[in-house]
Write a structure and sequence with these properties.
2% strand, mainly alpha, globular, 12 helices, two-stranded parallel ribbon
């Protein structure tokens, strides 16, 4: 019986990747892309406002989800979440896992590059409470200018960890053997997605956008039926992660949130089918909303934002 992925030490992932001549270059390149596209882009935009339009993307249904600071511990696990997959693969399969680890790292790099295709043209933000009673929130506010909401990298990274791990063990013919770990990642991805809504780092619109981008970047592993199944788990009691608070939305509110996420996802997918580029539905959506700096096309008829 293999152990839980949550029991894996995150540090082992760094030791393996940067200690391996086969993986080191891929790991350094991925980290460089993450630093550039997440931190540098945001700080440049924050320090030089007006270069790129910034659009608030809150939705009225966000108010149904109460601000719950205790979810921050789940939220902050999103990096450790996918790094523990590397650690698990290494400890379970040894050097035989190097190619699979490389595949996972490259998939994370693709996610950041894809998200940058939207961020470079239109930034986005949400209303978040200025809550610094906890040092965790203090550092979130300090390190995150909060301009990269659509699409949510948090959501894409954690779903990707699940679908990549499932594909890896399936390719080895060991899907049944690692069913428990696959379900752990499935439930954990849902928990982290719920957490970023509970601590108001994102809007439900950001979740739909992230699912859409992942369906474009990983068409084989995250087709529409997979995306719809993922959305159906949110706020339904299907999420699970260590230390997860017991906060639960009323059933009616949870259903409304899921329905909106699915509606937005389907509209993005439909818009993408007839667009020149996959980014077009997201850019059209962002520029159909009132912006913060007047550089977007506020007032344009919005095909992608259904009424509540």
């Amino acid at each position: 019986m293999y152990k839980s992925i949550y029991d894996e030490p995150v540090i082992s992932a760094f030791i393996r990747v940067f200690g391996s001549s086969f993986l080191r270059k891929t790991g350094v390149d991925c980290m460089a892309k993450q630093l550039y596209h997440f931190f540098f882009r945001q700080y440049r935009a924050a320090l030089q406002p007006g270069r790129i339009p910034v659009t608030p993307v809150d939705h009225p249904l966000d108010e149904k989800i109460p601000f719950t600071p205790s979810w921050v511990y789940v939220y902050l696990d999103f990096v450790g979440f996918w790094l523990r997959v590397i650690s698990f693969l290494w400890h379970t399969f040894g050097r035989r896992s190097d190619k699979a680890i490389e595949t996972l790292i490259l998939s994370v790099k693709r996610i950041y590059l894809a998200a940058a295709g939207v961020y470079s043209r239109n930034l986005s933000t949400t209303t978040r409470p200025f809550y610094i009673a906890s040092p965790h929130f203090f550092f979130i506010h300090l390190l995150d200018p909060h301009l990269l909401c659509i699409p949510s990298l948090h959501v894409m990274v954690v779903i990707n960890a699940h679908i990549q791990f499932r594909d890896i063990v399936r390719g080895m013919g060991k899907e049944a053997e690692f069913f428990r770990q696959t379900k752990e990642l499935e439930r954990g991805a849902a928990a982290i997605t719920e957490s970023l809504l509970y601590i108001k780092q994102h809007s439900i619109n950001c979740v739909a956008a992230a699912m859409y981008v992942l369906s474009c970047v990983e068409r084989r592993l995250f087709p529409e039926e997979e995306a719809e199944a993922f959305a159906s788990r949110l706020f339904s009691g299907a999420a699970a992660a260590p230390g997860m608070p017991k906060t639960r939305l009323p059933e009616e509110d949870g259903r409304a949130v899921r329905e909106h996420i699915l509606s937005m996802y389907r509209r993005f997918m439909e818009g993408g089918r007839g667009a020149e580029t996959w980014e077009a539905p997201l850019i059209d959506f962002l520029r159909s909303l009132p912006g913060k700096n007047g550089k977007n096309t506020a007032g344009k008829k919005d095909r992608f934002h259904p009424a509540v």
